Amino acid sequence: MSDTSESKPESLETANSTSAQGSAPGVPTHRDLMPRDLCRHLMFKQILNEGLDDLAGEDSVWPGDGYYWCLLTLHDIGPDDELVEPPACRRQRGCCEDLEF
Question: What value does the CA radius of gyration of the chain take, rounded to a whole number of Å?
Fold first, then answer.
């Protein structure tokens, strides 16, 4: 099982950016919380229902609302039989494929 006690990930944007949906100084968007080395197969509701530029909660460390699944398995367990979540679905994982920017 992966270690999820990591500190805040390196994000794509700064936490003080403004959202396309509005702005709130110091409150990050889901895009702000996306690590650069996140697997392209990690999926979460925020991507499908609303958008990455919506504001995340003030205490959020990772994008989304905590419900994640893998596009390869369509479950919360990846092809390597490990839990699917942002701290785990990164380059160090054998099944990870980088996001393309």
Answer: 13
